[in-house]
Amino acid sequence: MMQRNSSIPDMVRGMMTQSLVVLQNPSVSTFERYERSGTAVQAAIYVGLAALITGLLGIFSGGIGAVVANVISTLIGFFIFTGLVYYIGQAQGGTGKFDEVAYTFSLFWAPLAVLVSLGSLVLTITIIGVIFIPLLALVGLLASAYFAYLSVQSSMNLFDQTRILITLGGAVIGTMVLRVVLGFFGI
């Protein structure tokens, strides 16, 4: 278990190790092992770092302003989504805590975002990129959906498939609606 008051580099190293275990051994029990290891603040730092990395990987297409915007919009989107997972999961009978939801989601979301961005960068500089970047994005989306399904079971203690799908589907729809509304107001 990672100490909650460790330095940021130690915390990130610990979360990277936990992410590797989650990605290599995806299961509810793997998420259970780590769900109480961190906080929403640690998740924000980890996701923010991943957003910074993905932004820097795409700096050539948008400049430094795009990097800053990427970090801010990624953190807002992450917390809207995990907040909705928590809220809807509670309404579905879930008993988890928001820290557990945010932390477990960060363990797969951050590394998958970096891997997809890195893969997209590599494919962009090749001629086959036009064909394979959409496929890479689809694979990343499907992997995220699978890990989210496992994470909801662990972090919200939901095991009924219908309740899990309502939780995740509601969070996806709610996030899209809120992002459109926020975008309308320039946020």
Task: Please render the helix and strand layout as text.
Layout: H1 8-24, H2 28-34, H3 40-57, H4 59-91, H5 98-124, H6 129-155, H7 161-184
Helix pairs in contact: 1-5, 2-6, 3-4, 3-5, 4-5, 4-7, 5-6, 6-7
Distance between the termini: 36 Å
Please compute the radius of gyration using only Cα atoms.
16 Å
Give the rounded overall mean pLDDT. Answer: 89
Report the sheet with the most strands, covering strand number, pairing sense and barrel closure: none
Along the chain, the helix and strand elements come as HHHHHHH
Number of strands: 0
The gross shape turns out to be globular
Structural class: mainly alpha
Oligomer: single chain
What portion of the residues fall into strands of 2 or more residues?
under 5%
- SS summary, helix count: 7
